[in-house]
Every structure is written in structure tokens, then in C-alpha cells.
Specification:
- By secondary structure, this protein is of the alpha/beta class.
- The protein contains nine helices and six strands, in the order E-H-E-H-H-H-H-E-H-E-H-E-E-H-H.
Length: about 325
């Protein structure tokens, strides 16, 4: 006879898995790794406080820093025109429903869509090549130099494997979303038990024909990676890097029928001189749309053992 179950209050408590937010940066040289890590975490915390009402949010955050693979020294303080600074005032920040009626995307996206169709049909990507080489230099080198690409992917893969037993929110900004897609499709084949609970891409160039053709050549059909349980794509309408905005039409569902959830956002980042930068990572990770996702990784969790301390070393 099977032994009767103990009353509910006497049953051993099932511990929820620890949670972690892992970020990976995008194009161009960056400040030192520890500073960039602090600023990303501060921007995420600012959004959680203002948009979700969390007072002094506490969450495990890891940052994948790869700028040192392309640049000999970090960006000097005097050359950094775009530091993290909290927004003025208080209360929730503007959401996508408050976006301007007409943006750069609304004007340029239909033009680029025609170019995109021709480039994908012919495999000749002269326009994208020109854009990447002169506007997105790091991404051009990533596609042209296999050793550099493998080194960047390896850093992200090592960090994901370190936290394989956590619930992972992976936040990939700009070119970081290209690295993330490559890494996740590789892990599908090499380490299929590793899963990312939620992938967030922000300011992503995954809609460019050159990027899509490269993915198809290396990974097959464009789709949500099978090791991803949710994918949210954030795009500001005035961010020229994310010119195509929505990605769902280009990337099919994975084997669990997970599709991309495209969301329009308002990135209100401004440089100290007041000039806006609708592409900036700090602005994206404090939008209400991102804060709603991140909240699930910032609320208290009961542990049996504390998580290990955050490591800021670039190569770990």
C-alpha cells in the first residue's frame, strides 16, 4: 500500500530556481567592463522602480563584455559622450503607446523593405554591405572575421553555461542580438539541455538582409531558437539600426510554437548636451515594456543557497 502523503504544511518545500539577468552589449567601443556593468544594472533598476514600483530592486545581473576583443583600450572618460544618467522626475516612463505618430521607421522602412526583397532574392547585398562597413563597423568585422565572431560567441556561451540551472533572462542590445542568435542556434546543437527562459532583443539589426542571409547559410531556416521559451523584440521607431522594427514576419516559430513578440517602445535617452540617441542601451532597458519582463527576475526568491557573487571580468 502506498504511504499516505503528509499534510501540505508538513511537505518539504520545493525551492524555486534562482533567476539571473544576463546582458550583452552592442556596437562600438565601451567604457571599462565594471563601469558598463554598473550602468546597465542601474538603468534596469531605474526602470523597475519607476515603471513597476519596486523600491530598491535587488536582482542578480551578469554582463557579457566583448569590446576588448576589438579595441586595445576601453573608451576614456573624456571621450564618452553617452554616460548613464537617471531621467529627471519620477513616475513611469513613456511606453510604446505614446510613440510619435510618424517616426524614421515609418518613412524609411518601406524603402528598405523593397531593397531587402531584392537583396534576399539575389543574394547580392551591396546596400547592406555599405551600411555595415561604414555605419556598423563592428558588425561588418564580425561577419568578415570568423575568429573574432567565435571569440565573442564563446564569451556569451560560457556565461550561459555558468547559469544553466537558473531561470535566464538574456538581454541582447544591437549587435549583441546577432551574437545571441548565433550562440543560441549553436547551443541547440551542442548543448540542447541549456535553455533561456526569455530572450529580449533591443535595437536589433536582425531584420537586415545581410544578417538574415548569413544566418540562413550557417543555421538553416530563420526561426526562434528551440532553446528559447519566450522572445520579446523591442524597437524605437526613430532607431535607424532597428529600421525594420518587427521581426516576427521574418523568423518563424520554434518547435514549441514560440513566436517573436514585437513591441514598439519609446527610448528617451539623451546625451548630457541634450541630443537624443534612440539607439542607446540605457534607454531601452528602462522602458516600461522591458521593465514588465524584468520584474519576474527581480522579485524575492527563497533560496537554499545564496547565488555566487557577480563577476565583472570581461573574459569570464
Amino acid at each position: 500500500m502506498r504511504e499516505a502523503e503528509p499534510p501540505r504544511e508538513d511537505r518539504p518545500e520545493v525551492m524555486e530556481r534562482d533567476r539571473v539577468i544576463i546582458g550583452i552589449h552592442g556596437l562600438a567601443n565601451k567604457p571599462p567592463a565594471d563601469e558598463k556593468t554598473r550602468w546597465w544594472k542601474a538603468a534596469i533598476a531605474e526602470g523597475l522602480t519607476r515603471n513597476e514600483g519596486l523600491s530598491d530592486p535587488d536582482f542578480l545581473f551578469e554582463f557579457v563584455y566583448w569590446a576588448d576583443l576589438r579595441y586595445d583600450t576601453p573608451l576614456p572618460v573624456d571621450d564618452n559622450r553617452e554616460p548613464y544618467r537617471p531621467y529627471d522626475g519620477d513616475g513611469p516612463l513613456p511606453g510604446g503607446d505614446e510613440a510619435p505618430a510618424t517616426t524614421v521607421k515609418d518613412v524609411l522602412a518601406p524603402v528598405y523593405a523593397g531593397i531587402d526583397r531584392i537583396e534576399e532574392a539575389t543574394g547580392v547585398t551591396l546596400v547592406d554591405d555599405l551600411i555595415l562597413e561604414h555605419r556598423f563597423d563592428d558588425l561588418w568585422h564580425y561577419h568578415a572575421e570568423q575568429g573574432f565572431a567565435r571569440d565573442v560567441q564563446a564569451r556569451l556561451i560560457r556565461r550561459l553555461r555558468t547559469y544553466r540551472h537558473h531561470r535566464i533572462l538574456l538581454v541582447a542590445h544591437s549587435m549583441g542580438s546577432v551574437v545571441a542568435y548565433d550562440a543560441l542556434r549553436l547551443l541547440e546543437r551542442e548543448d540542447p539541455s541549456l535553455r533561456v527562459e526569455h530572450l529580449v532583443t533591443a535595437a536589433s539589426p536582425l531584420g537586415l538582409a545581410k544578417v538574415k542571409l548569413k544566418f540562413e547559410a550557417e543555421h538553416g531556416a530563420l526561426r526562434v531558437p528551440d532553446n528559447v521559451s519566450a522572445w520579446t523584440n523591442l524597437a524605437d521607431g526613430d532607431d535607424v539600426v532597428a529600421i525594420m522594427g518587427a521581426l516576427d514576419a521574418d523568423y518563424g516559430p520554434n518547435d514549441q510554437s514560440v513566436r517573436i513578440n514585437d513591441q514598439r517602445v519609446v527610448n528617451r535617452y539623451q546625451r548630457p548636451d541634450g541630443e537624443p540617441n534612440h539607439h542607446k542601451s540605457y534607454g531601452y532597458v528602462r522602458t516600461p515594456e522591458f521593465s514588465r519582463v524584468a520584474r519576474a527576475y527581480a522579485e524575492p526568491v527563497r533560496h537554499a543557497v545564496r547565488s555566487r557573487p557577480n563577476r565583472l571580468l570581461a573574459g569570464t
